[in-house]
């Protein structure tokens, strides 16, 4: 009897040992570091778990080394992001950089140029450099690119600002906004830091990108012979540009050689160029060719507008200034609508029409926020000018 009991003890002991061994070996990396049976590369966290294993037993968090880079191989264009900002814009531009990096640039690592009429402070540089995956560069704008030209009558300009304040015209009483619009119209692409680049993508504070961008839009522009692009288009406030169109007409009369044969006049005018319909591409987003802006044609155009004083005697925005130039001096095939770059700048959203597209590109915009087909958008004109077929379901987004 004692022998049988002894054999039973041995069987129970062996069973218990086997059970303990089984529990240990199947617990995996959540219990003991370094014992994962997954290949280290199958999940980003696994890489760090094995690193932490040396010396002590630890859990799988924190993952102090971050995610491995998801960089797309292949050539890069000679391109940069460009942002005009003040030091106090740091947290708003931080949000924009995060969006651009998450949706696109973490895979492409393009540089980022920051420009300011003042010196950037250390906080601005530290925060933005930490967020951007490419090289960051910080430039101060030369005084002559951010001041009143000599030919401007200061009293006349001040009187206009007073009148615009009375009329409650947006930014109507602001001097700095006028310097900003003139700088964006005629100078940013000539800043020494920008001269290194052929292509730029303009980014403003507090924008959002709503879909993944899995290809290189700069390369797309080059491959398809595009020079200027947009995502939102709308009508400009009439009160800010009363004489802009006539000044443009003087310019084209003086330099007819600069007007492209196959231009986009139909986008800008409903009567063959007699009047401006106020449609423009919204320039807070732009991917474009800086060499085009540096061309003699564009510089003559800008100088002509600048001489007339409209940046200060009215309140000309860089959006209509760029748009009219692109519309008249580029071939219409050189202007691209980036339907796939879903974008927000207060108060308008471009959210691509079509559920399948939005799902495929991991978009998080609300379809009903899409501005494209609403009454105040100029996108329909662009589609008609270029004989493009409007996407299925656009009618449902018109109101
Ligand atoms: N450095 C600098 N940047 C400015 C100034 N005013 C505006 N900006 C920048 O110029 C761009 C347009 O200005 P914003 O206030 O966004 O104008 P809005 O988009 O027309 O309402 C943004 O990138 C701003 O950060 C200024 O006085 N100094
Ligand atoms: Mg803005």
TrEMBL record:
Residues at the active site: 286
Keyword check for rRNA-binding: no
GO molecular function: alpha-1,2-mannosyltransferase activity
Record's keyword annotation contains Transmembrane helix: no
Annotated spans, Disordered: 31-72
A GO term from the CC aspect: membrane
Amino acid composition bias (Polar residues), ranges on this chain: 31-66
Keywords (A to Z) from UniProt: Glycosyltransferase, Transferase
Top-level taxonomic group: Eukaryota
Gene3D superfamilies registered for this protein in UniProt: Spore Coat Polysaccharide Biosynthesis Protein SpsA, Chain A
Family note: Belongs to the glycosyltransferase 15 family.
Record's protein name: Glycosyl transferase
Native species: Microthyrium microscopicum
């Amino acid at each position: 009897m004692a022998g049988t009991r002894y054999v039973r003890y041995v069987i129970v002991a062996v069973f218990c040992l086997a059970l303990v061994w089984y529990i240990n070996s199947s617990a995996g990396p959540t219990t003991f570091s370094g014992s994962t049976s997954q290949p280290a590369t199958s999940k980003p966290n696994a890489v760090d778990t094995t690193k932490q294993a040396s010396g002590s037993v630890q859990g799988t968090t924190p993952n102090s080394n971050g995610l491995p880079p998801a960089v797309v191989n292949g050539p890069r264009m000679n391109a940069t992001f460009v942002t005009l900002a003040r030091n106090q814009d740091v947290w708003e531009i931080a949000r924009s950089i995060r969006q651009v990096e998450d949706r696109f640039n973490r895979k492409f690592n393009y540089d980022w140029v920051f420009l300011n009429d003042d010196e950037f402070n250390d906080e601005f540089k530290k925060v933005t450099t930490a967020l951007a995956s490419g090289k960051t560069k910080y430039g101060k704008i030369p005084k002559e690119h951010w001041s009143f030209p000599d030919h401007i009558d200061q009293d006349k300009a001040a009187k206009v600002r007073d009148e615009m304040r009375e009329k409650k015209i947006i930014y109507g009483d602001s001097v700095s906004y006028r310097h900003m619009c003139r700088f964006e119209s005629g100078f940013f692409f000539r800043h020494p830091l920008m001269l290194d680049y052929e292509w730029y993508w303009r980014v403003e504070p507090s924008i959002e990108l709503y879909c993944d961008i899995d290809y290189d839009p700069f390369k797309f522009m080059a491959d398809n012979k595009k020079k200027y692009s947009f995502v939102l288009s709308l009508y400009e406030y009439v009160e800010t540009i009363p004489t802009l169109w006539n000044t443009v007409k003087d310019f084209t009369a003086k330099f007819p050689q600069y007007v492209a044969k196959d231009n986009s006049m139909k986008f800008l005018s409903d009567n063959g160029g007699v009047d401006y319909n106020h449609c423009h591409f919204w320039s807070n987003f732009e991917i474009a060719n800086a060499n085009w802006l540096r061309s003699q044609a564009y510089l003559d155009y800008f100088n002509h507008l600048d001489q007339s004083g409209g940046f200060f005697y009215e309140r000309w925005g860089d959006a209509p200034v760029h748009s009219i130039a692109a519309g008249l001096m580029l071939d219409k095939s050189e202007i691209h609508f980036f339907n796939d770059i879903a974008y927000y700048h207060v108060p308008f959203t471009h959210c691509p029409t079509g559920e399948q597209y939005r799902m495929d590109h991991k978009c998080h915009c609300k379809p009903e926020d899409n501005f494209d087909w609403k009454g105040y958008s100029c996108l329909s004109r662009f589609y008609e000018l270029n004989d493009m077929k409007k996407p299925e379901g656009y009618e449902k987004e018109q109101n």
